[in-house]
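A common beginner's mistake is to predict each chain separately and then try to dock the pieces by hand. The better habit, illustrated here, is to supply every component at once so that their relative placement is modeled jointly.
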Amino acid sequence: MKDVLTLQVNGDQVEVGVPTHYTLLETLRYVLGLTGSKQGCDKGDCGACTVLLDGEAHLSCIMPVYEALGHEITTVEGLADGPYPHPLQDAFDLTGAAQCGFCTPGILCSAHGLLAENRSPSRQEIQQALSGNLCRCTGYTKIFEAVEVAAESLRTGMDPRDIVAERYEVALPSRSMQPLSDLLKEPHA
Amino acid sequence: MRSEDLLPLQERTADRPETLSEIAGGGFRMIGGRNRGVDGFQKSTGKAIYTDDIVLPGMLHAKILRSTEPHARIQSIDASAALALEGVHDVITGRDIPTAYGIIPWTPDEHALAVEKVRFVGDAVACVAAVDEDTANAALDLIEVEYEALPYYLDPEKALTLEAAETPIHAPRKPGGNGNILKRVQLEFGPVDEKMSEADVVVEGEYYFHGTTHAPIEPHCAIARLNQDGLLVVWSATQVPHYLHREIARVLGLDVAKVRVVQPAVGGAFGGKSEPFDLEFCVALLALRTGRPVKILYTREEVFYSHRGRHPMKMKYRVGASENGRILAVDAETILDGGAYASFGLVTTYYSGQLLTAPYEIESYRFDSTRVYTNKAPCGPKRGHGSVQPRFAFEISLDKVAERLQMDPIEFRRGVFMGTGRTVNEFRVQSNGFLECLEAVEKASGWKEKYGKMPYGRGLGVAGSCYISGTNYPIYPNPMPQAAVQVQVERSGRVTVLHGASEIGQGSDSTMAYIACEELGVPLDYVRVFSADTDLVPVDLGAYSSRETIMVGNACLMACRRVGDLVGGSVAAEWEVEPSRVRLAGGWAFDVKDTERRMPIAAAFQLAEAEHGTLGAVGHYNTPKEGVHGDYRGGTIGASPAYSFTAHVADVEVDPDTGFVDVRTIWVAHDCGRALNPVLVEGQIEGSAYMGHAEAVLEEQEYMVGEHEGGLHNAPSLLDYRIPTSMDCPEFVPFIVESNDPEGPYGAKEAGEGPLHPSLPAIANAIYDAIGIRIDSLPFTPPRVWQAIRDAEAVKMAEEVA
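With all components supplied together, the output reads:
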């Protein structure tokens, strides 16, 4: 049996026909084709399915889709500001915080939830905010660093690239692998 | 198009011309830099496509029925009710796919679906394809399987008994043998008994490694589709597309040229996806039978049952040393608990002995390893295949020896450093940065001030290790290259690298791109990388045994240099200078003697294309065969083109009241040859130390015992199988040591597996420093540590009373 629901997803109002027993994750992945949110365990253990509801991190794999009604849902696909990557996304790439990348969408959402509340999180606050997201590749260190870089970028308006360059005391090959945003920002550079 | 037309756009990404003089005299432009990855933004924006993200029109979903018995004969399977269910398209059983397979060609003992027998709880029995997952699951409940229970063995020592041999898990391969034994390897190097008798100190111990699993966050997933022209396409979350390609064709009786295997982005593997699995054969057969695309996604429970994780090992070690600190003899006896199938077990059995003999000078060595079948999920290769367990036993043994000799454990290890040359089992080591590794962790940890001097409950421990950078021989013997790369160079300046390496998060796609940038002078965003699609890229054997950087990297270097020489030659001819004066770097071709003379790299490509026609090249790599290993039987197994080295110091705090071990810091120094990108190397070092630490204090692949639940996995979930959260990790402090091996691309060796090994013994040795108690069995969970402390107290009390 299916119901027709109206959801707010990544800024759009969408009408979807959903089997009544579907979770939010199933709705995002199977109905809307938003496959950025991942299924790692399907029981709320791993956090790969984490999305934002009204800016707060939630596990979409154990949330019946009905519970998301009336809330602003944001997935990893909705974090970027149009063509500009969110500083978190830029920082994850710069610091090597995404290895296999499977936990990354969920971690980005959890981190986004943290930074919305706190733009100067301590290492311990970051650890706590991400404690529901399992990463099997990195040992978390580079993820913590990425969140710190993004926080600094949000606080100061500095480019994450310059923050990373300063942090590691290296001249990053600054003109390599420019994100699209740079081209848009400095069309005549 | 005139070359200068490209300049304004090129300037965006090319180096500023005034900086070219900095690299005119040599040095790297790209290699060694903290560069971005080529797939970073794909992954951080949710655009990377993993297998389960693929949805094909008309796709069916399949589910596998799994055995509830640890060891039983299948009497009958009745799938009629399942087939009759609305929405079910097909049901297959072992009869439909009877060919046995196995990753090692000599030990094919698995079937995609059980034939006659099931051998562990979780063994695949039947597979249903239906319109959706819910229908497939409902159909599984309707399949009736009658089993005749057989005696089952969860303990390898029980499986070794004569009684167990009467009802073995597999038929013996030789008449009269015990079918429960997969392989026994006995090798001796030098006069062990004689040397042991000369030893001033002999340390004996029994060690136990408990068995752990990979637990990648992405569950295994596979999709197959039959194209109407007869091509079977299989997408799979695999780390060995080439072996999967071969095995699918062989098992299903297809022409290998008419099978295409595509590896989408993989969400972690760690060795857990390095052989063919039941789901891949099932989707392939169901796609052939139904004509519809078919997908299987494992549940998390199925990931635990598919396993192939680290073998539990019972290890007896005797180490003899002279009073001046030489290691005279090592004598090891190991039983490997293999689980129900062979997997890589033949190799694991060798590795449990062969990979132990560096970085130390060992004067004589003997090992006797036996891999035994048990009725549990099959064990296989996990990060640091076969050698993490013996390293645990050996490095603790070395600590005990140092103590008996009243030597500092780091000083002792320095004294037995082998340098380069030959190991006792005749492997050739051409670079060895282990001393620098030891020094880095000694200094950073404040070892000299702290070791043995911290208050009760706090301690430091050290351990070292060695690992292979790829195996010298492929899994199926053949004289062809182990790795190959094709490079295309296009007149816009774009370079495309087609390679077979499996990107599983370790960064092989980025690594190939860095090499292309370095050699062809293009900026990173001019490089496109396509990998692991058997229709598009040359054969590579896959992401296992830490082989990608050295092997695919060398192949990429060869291809790039071939085409780079053409480009450089054309530019040199244009400028009428020697080709050696032309360098391609940073988006330019320039004259190293006069950097004012330059052209954008695209213009250089165009010159070369005009001279030579369409630009492209292939490159390959095969391992050196002469003089790299001994010529005894088994001497090829464990041989590698180059070896990496690692040292750890762990700082732990033990709570004597609860037995809780808090690992506070792990300093890790790893000799990876040259670090092609330090960010990636650090990521591998930290990730390895993380995984080793978790195996030491948190994780355990456990099975229930008892009449009814025997063989059932104790904790097949990511909640109960305790992989560390962000709150559970120590601080990891990585150091990169660059010894630059002559065999590696720019000197590079592996970094993905080696840095895991010392975590466990370093923590064990630190616990001893903290509380003065040796715990030789893993894992160091609170109950075990608490009990060890109580036992030690009881012994002490008894001694006082006496």
